[in-house]
Design brief:
alpha/beta, globular, 5-stranded mixed beta sheet
Length: 397
């Protein structure tokens, strides 16, 4: 957060932002930065203390006499409920207001069973994770789903894939049991934001996250923010066709989508066709580690086909970093090598001059982190905090 100009109208929500960022740790700091009078600062701080958003400590350094009370954001002042859903598994967690995991459950789950089955399951897990905490402790819910999402409405749109979720408005279903703000986004968007904010935000502003798992998708960070597009469909690279894919029919109805020729599902299918007995990606890992030539060929080919699509995205978006995540990218170095080979060969010289292509640093935790940040960014925004404090118009004293 940059230094803000002095303003006699700084609200309680804006004061909280100063405290969270570390710009202000005492009442004197707040007055100096905002221009608020001492009574006005006291009024804002009292409201934040009363609502449990800030705590006060007296263990700071002193230049003589009684040390000044130091103010700190109270991450323990509430919890957020989050879940990052993939096609075949889910990470479900309880986080504090800094996005730190307090409890986590990983489940194998078939998202195709539909919202009537999946959403109640998530809510039951959250109830267990709350472990007796009062409902008042819950401040928001964040959910990432493997579908195109109209973000403003929280509505999933997957006409040809995940048909049972098509047109479902998720927030009201969850809010009926947890009456708090509910936010829903595409699963790779939240993973991309989690990875970006925790691992890259201090270095770069533009990042492309590509998830290679049961399916393939992407999240685009542009100027430090998620790029969703006009209706939330940005990043759907899984359904971009590749050259010489072999005529494979994709779930969406088209042919040779990269999802159908380079995903974890495609790798398993192609290995079985070559006589390898593989039922899970763990079996593929065993063959890769054993140096099985047939397996290495299949995995590297998948990387090269994926590289075709990523190269086009690099030319279009010019990211500083491409992060490859998901269990396939995280387990198979030959696939990552195949992507790098093609991207550096087919993308423009300028777009690759300083481009880094790396594997995920956060792994499965990125989705939980991203979901938590999605909620926290909204519920702790100045306007939302002011509404919680009962402030309509900032008051000067």
């Amino acid at each position: 957060m940059g230094r803000r100009s002095a303003s006699p109208l700084a609200s309680g929500g804006e004061v909280l932002q100063l405290i969270r960022s570390g710009e202000a740790v005492t009442r004197a700091d707040i007055g100096r930065i905002t221009g608020l009078s001492r009574p006005a600062v006291a009024l804002r701080v009292a409201g934040l203390l009363d609502h449990g958003l800030v705590v006060e400590r007296t263990d700071g350094p002193s230049t003589g006499g009684r040390p000044p009370a130091r103010l700190a954001f109270n991450a323990a002042g509430g919890v957020v409920l989050v879940a990052s859903l993939g096609a075949s598994r889910a990470q479900i967690a309880l986080c504090d207001l800094d996005g730190r995991e307090l409890a986590r459950t990983d489940l194998e789950i078939d998202v195709e069973r539909g919202p009537d089955v999946v959403l109640p399951l998530l809510m039951d897990v959250w109830a267990d994770q709350l472990d007796g905490r009062p409902m008042s402790a819950v401040k928001g819910v964040g959910l990432g789903v493997p579908a195109t999402v109209e973000f403003a409405a929280g509505r999933t749109e997957s006409a040809r894939v995940m048909a049972s979720w098509t047109g479902v408005v998720i927030p009201p279903r969850i809010a009926a049991r947890y009456p708090v703000p509910v936010f829903v986004d595409n699963d790779v968007n939240v993973i991309a934001m989690g990875e970006y904010r925790k691992a890259y935000a201090r270095e770069v502003s533009d990042l492309l996250f590509v998830k290679v798992s049961t399916r393939i998708g992407a999240g685009v960070i542009a100027g430090g923010e998620i790029l969703r597009g006009a209706l939330g469909a940005a990043g759907e690279i899984g359904h971009i066709p590749v050259w010489d894919g072999g005529g494979v029919l994709c779930r969406c109805g088209n042919v040779d989508c990269v999802d159908s020729v380079a995903s974890g599902t495609a790798i398993l299918r192609d290995l079985r066709a070559r006589g390898r007995e593989v039922s899970t990606l763990a079996d593929v890992v065993t063959l890769v580690r054993a140096g099985d030539a047939e397996t290495m060929t299949v995995v590297r080919r998948a990387g090269r086909l994926l590289g075709e699509v990523v190269a086009g995205a690099v030319n279009l978006l010019n990211p500083a970093v491409v992060v490859l995540g998901g269990d396939v990218a995280e387990r198979f170095q030959p696939l990552v090598s195949g992507v790098r080979e093609v991207v550096y060969r087919r993308s423009t010289a300028l777009s690759t001059r300083s481009l880094r292509i790396e594997r995920s640093l956060l792994g499965p935790s990125a989705g939980i982190t991203g979901c938590a940040l999605m909620v926290i960014d909204h519920i702790l925004a100045p306007d939302a905090v002011d509404a919680a404090l009962g402030v309509v118009t900032p008051v000067t004293v």
